[in-house]
Design a protein that fits this description.
alpha+beta, DNA polymerase, domain 1, Cytidine Deaminase, domain 2, 2 domains
């Protein structure tokens, strides 16, 4: 990069930083500014526009699989890792809040956490969130990982972990990466089986959330989860 170009981009990024501090950046500019820290000697505006065009939005860029980022022209390994680090920091912030505040204080917050966790996952995953007596997060456990349309659920292991952690409530979360379809018959059967066993152990099933390509479904509001809880979310959440 020539000296005049270097001065121009330095001044442009200074203006972007000030615009960010003033709360005036639009999404492509936020991505441009982020990319500037990973690629300091290049104009990142075209790359930011191209990434958002390819993936659909800034959050979709940050949650894209690292292999998909690496396959994108202009994205190297360091830049892809940097973008995934941003996603991990976002999730850390959600988990830190859930460690200290009851998860029902803001159901949208919980649904957003599910989306940031599962968005753009290429295969089905089944997570179990174990909660204490104040509905605070004890552990978010990746229970199983499968294929693009199926994953295993091992009820005995879920019960064992709940008892080990002394959890009094549990949230189930899994995804359907290939569709917007709601709960399958298998999803319903395993949910009802887990809730029945939990009821016998005086452990409540808070909800079972299903993350699809564009929606998040609540098992409780779909009539799959039946036990009491303090507040209900919407039956679906559009991303």
């Amino acid at each position: 990069m020539s000296e005049p170009d270097s001065k121009f981009y330095s001044g442009h990024r200074d203006r972007l930083r000030q615009k960010f501090l003033d709360g005036k950046l639009v999404d492509y500019e936020k991505l441009e500014l982020l990319l500037g820290y990973a690629i300091p000697r290049r104009d990142t505006r075209p790359l930011a526009h191209a990434l958002i065009k390819r993936f659909g939005s800034l959050p979709q860029v940050l949650t894209a699989q690292i292999d998909d980022l690496l396959a994108f022209p202009g994205i190297g390994h360091n830049t892809a890792v940097f973008l995934k680090l941003v996603q991990d920091i976002v999730l850390s912030g959600y988990r830190a809040t859930m460690d200290t505040r009851p998860i029902f204080h803001d159901i949208k917050f919980m649904l957003d956490y599910c989306w940031w966790t599962f968005a753009n996952k290429p295969v089905e995953e089944f997570h179990v969130l174990y909660l204490d007596s104040d509905f605070r997060l004890l552990q978010d456990q990746l229970h199983s990982s499968g294929t693009y349309n199926t994953t295993g659920v091992y009820v005995r292991e879920i019960i064992k972990t709940a008892l080990k952690l002394n959890a009094t409530s549990v949230v189930l979360v899994h995804n359907h990466p290939a569709s917007d379809n709601s709960f399958s018959n298998d999803d319903i059967e395993v949910t009802e089986e887990i809730e029945k066993i939990f009821n016998d152990l005086d452990i409540s099933l808070f909800d079972h959330f299903l993350v699809t390509k564009h929606m998040i479904y609540s098992g409780r509001d779909c009539g799959i989860v039946h036990g009491p809880r303090k507040r209900n979310p919407n039956s679906s959440h559009q991303n």
